[in-house]
Amino acid sequence: MKPDQPAPHRARKRFGQNFLRDGAVIDRIVRAVAPQAGDHLVEIGPGHGALTGELVASGARLDVIELDRDLVPGLLAAYGLRPGFRLHSADALKFDFASLAVAPGSRLRVVGNLPYNISTPLIFRLLDLGAQLQDMHFMLQREVVQRLAAEPGGKDWGRLGIMAQFHCHVQALFDVPPEAFSPPPKVHSAVVRMTPRANEALHQCDRRALAQVVQAAFAHRRKTLRNNLKGLIDSAALEALGIDPGARAETLSLAQFVEITNAVHV
């Protein structure tokens, strides 16, 4: 523990807490984020402040969001007087992130060691920020990162990866073993970088319509597109798009799902 970090606090299972304690991993995450003076960072779940001190030392503006009220006094004692630091005692799933953007054109850089049980809904909530979001760096369960960064044709390619990659360029950075945490989780973790796409052709598609098509296509992974998309698009229309109706959903690219969606929802 560094001198200005809060005193240790026992992890609570109901909050899904696993506190990062490995200095080498902390340094590697900070290097990946590369915070700069002038950045507006948002840290979700600072816990004992393993990353917090490094982030605020960069000169960036830092908002931290912590659900566990017992951690708040220690964080305020350690960092409350640091310039640019603000703490919000709140649930990240309900927090109004858009309210943090104080200047026109300012964008948020979000960082966090996310509890596994909230990671997926929280990421998609953040994606709603659109142009207000610069990038995201998250520690997640390794299997979730594999699904986020998956490519067509593999078992990990599915709804999560397609919808995340519709919004962002996704890059799996490195794995983190259980012993880097206290208490050690029962799963391996990984760090992922997600950078929003800007004005790309893929965005000429309704996101909610795309989600409906993808959900239907993967409803039964072993069935073909012909069967899963019945009622949305017929075989002849799929063939007109150059897509084999006898193929399975995991073989299609994101661009092909966009083509199907635009054909269905004109």
Tell me about this structure.
This protein has 266 residues and is α/β, with parallel strands linked by helices. It folds into two domains: 13-198, 3-Layer(aba) Sandwich (Rossmann fold); 202-264, Orthogonal Bundle (Helicase, Ruva Protein, domain 3), CATH 1.10.8. Helix content is 31%, strand content 20%. It contains ten helices and nine strands. The strands form two sheets. Strands 4-3-2-5-6-9-7 form a seven-stranded mixed beta sheet, with helices on both faces. A two-stranded antiparallel ribbon has the order 1-8. Helix 4 (119-127) links the parallel strand 5 (108-113) and strand 6 (133-141). Helix 7 crosses helix 10. Mean pLDDT is 90; it is low at 11-15.
Layout of helices and strands, plus pairs?
Elements: E1 19-20, H1 23-33, E2 40-44, H2 52-57, E3 61-66, H3 72-79, E4 85-89, E5 108-113, H4 119-127, E6 133-141, H5 142-148, H6 159-167, E7 168-176, E8 181-182, E9 189-196, H7 207-217, H8 225-228, H9 235-240, H10 254-264
Parallel strand pairs: 2-3, 2-5, 3-4, 5-6
Antiparallel strand pairs: 1-8, 6-9, 7-9
* Relative helix content: 25-40%
The CATH superfamily of the largest domain appears as Vaccinia Virus protein VP39
The CATH class designation of the largest domain is Alpha Beta
Write out the strand line-up for the largest beta sheet, numbering strands in chain order.
Answer: 4-3-2-5-6-9-7
Which architecture name of the largest domain does CATH use? 3-Layer(aba) Sandwich
Q: What's the main sheet like?
A: 7 strands, mixed
Strand content: 15-25%
CATH topology of the largest domain: Rossmann fold
Order of helices and strands: EHEHEHEEHEHHEEEHHHH
Distance between the termini: 57 Å
The helix/strand class is alpha/beta
Total domain units = 2
